[in-house]
Amino acid sequence: MRILFASILLLVISSIAFAQDSDRVLTRVKYSFTHIQDTTKKNQPYTENMVLLVGKNASLYISYDKVNQIIEGRKQQEKMKLQAGTGTLTFKGYKMSSQTDYYYFIKENKFFTKERLVSDYLIEEEAPKINWKITKETRNFSGVHCQKATANFKGRNWIVWFAPDMPFQSGPWKLNGLPGIIIDAYDQSGTVKFQFTGIEDTSVATDNLALYSGNEVKLPLKIMKASLKDMEKLKDAYAKDPQGFMKTQSGGGSSMVITGYSTSPSAPIAEKDRFVFNNPLELPEKNK
Predict the structure, then answer these.
(1) Distance between the two ends of the chain, CA-based, in angstroms?
(2) Is 229 inside a domain boundary?
(3) How far is CA 243 from the centre of its chain?
(4) By the 8 A CB rule, do 98 and 90 touch?
(5) Is residue 165 within 8 Å of residue 145, measured between CB atoms?
(6) Would residue 70 count as lying in a domain?
(7) Could you tell me which residues are beta bridge partners of residue 65?
(8) Which residues, 6 or more positions from 123, have their beta carbon under 8 angstroms from its beta carbon?
(9) What whole-number distance in Å separates Cα of residue 199 and Cα of residue 116?
(10) Which end is more exposed in the chain, N or C (fewer Cβ atoms within 10 Å of the end residue's Cβ)?
C-alpha cells in the first residue's frame, strides 16, 4: 500500500512555482457560513467564520477559523522550541474548519483551489461562468448599499446581494462575476448561507489574517500541483488507508494531538446520531 501511495504521488503530482502576480489586499469581507449538510438534521447545521480578502485584480476566500488555528499552532511550535518539547503538538478545543482556499484572478480569468490532504495541493479549475440576472431590488447591510442578483450555479438557485459601489468582481466560495463585491448570498432552499458579518479596511492590519497572508493575495511560491482527477485519486487512497497515507506524506515526523475532538469514536454510534452527508455544496447541474 505504501508503494501505491508513492506511485500516485510521483505520477500525478509535480512541484512547481506559479507565475500569477500578487495583489495587495484592499478590503476584507467577513461572513458567517452556514451549511445544512444532513437534511435529516436541519437543526444541526455546520457553521464557520469565513473571510474574503479582496485586491484590485484578485481575491482569496478562506476560513477565518482555520487562520486563527494555524497562528495558534505556530505559537505552540515556538513554545515547544523554547521548552525543548517532545515533538507533540496539543490543541485544546479544536474546531473543524475548511481546509480549502479559493483564489480568483480576475484579469487572467484564472481560478485555483488549495486543498490540504496531509500536504497542500494546488488545483487549477475552470474559472466559474455564472449567468447572473441583476434585478432593481436594493437593500442595505450595515450601511453597505447592495443590489440583488440571482442565478443557477452548481445545481443551486442562488440569491445574492452585491455592492455596486465596491466594483470588485469577487465573492464567497466560487460566487463571482458581478459588478461589485458579493456581500450576502444564500441558496433558495435555505440550506447554504454566506451571511455578511462585517467589512474592514486593511491598510493598517496587523492581526492573524495579516500574519497568514501578508496582506497580499498570492499563490504559494512552491506547492504540489494536482488536477481535479488527480485529487480524487489521492482522496480515494486516503479514504482506504488514512494511516498509511499520512505516513507516506509525513515521513514519520512529529505527531499532532488534538484534544476535545475525535474522528474515531471508540463506542458505536447510535442510529439517531449518525451523520449523513446528503447535501454537498455542489449539486448536479439542473437540466436547462
Answers:
(1) 44
(2) no
(3) 24
(4) no
(5) yes
(6) yes
(7) none
(8) 112, 113, 114, 115, 225, 226, 227, 228, 231
(9) 27
(10) C
- Please give the grid coordinates belonging to residue 213: 497572508
Domain with 195 in it: 18-221+254-273
| CA dihedral of 160, 164, 167, 168, whole degrees rounded to 10 | -10
Using CA atoms, how far apart are residues 277 and 286, in angstroms rounded to an integer? 20
- The domain tally of the chain equals 1
What CA–CA distances, in Å, run from 178 to 26, 133, 145, 146, 224?
Answer: 18, 10, 15, 12, 31
In a domain, 232, yes or no: no
Give a yes or no: residue 283 inside a domain.
no
Q: Which residues pair with residue 15 across a beta bridge?
A: 224
Report how far apart, in Å, the C-alpha atoms of 65 and of each of 42, 71, 111, 284 are: 23, 10, 23, 29
The pLDDT value given to residue 1: 41
Euclidean distance between CA atoms 185 and 128, whole angstroms? 16
- Quote the CA–CA distance of 11 and 103 in Å, as a whole number: 25
Torsion on CA atoms 224, 227, 230, 234, rounded to nearest 10: 50
For residue 114, the cross-strand partners are 101, 122
The C-alpha cell at 185 is: 448570498
Report d(CA 123, CA 127) in Å as an integer.
12
pLDDT of the residue at 10: 41
C-alpha cell read off for 148: 440583488
* Per-residue pLDDT at 14: 46
Q: What is the total residue count of the chain?
A: 288
Contact indicator for 25, 53 with CB cutoff of 8 Å: yes
List phi, psi (to 5°) of 13.
-120, 140
Q: Consecutive sets of 10 residues in the chain, 288 residues long: mean pLDDT of each? A: 42 48 89 95 93 94 90 76 61 68 92 88 90 97 96 96 94 96 97 95 73 84 85 83 72 39 38 70 76
Closest to 109 (Cα-Cα) out of 129, 132, 134: 129
- Dihedral sign of CA atoms 143, 147, 148, 153 in order: negative
Where would I find the H helices in 49-202?
64-83
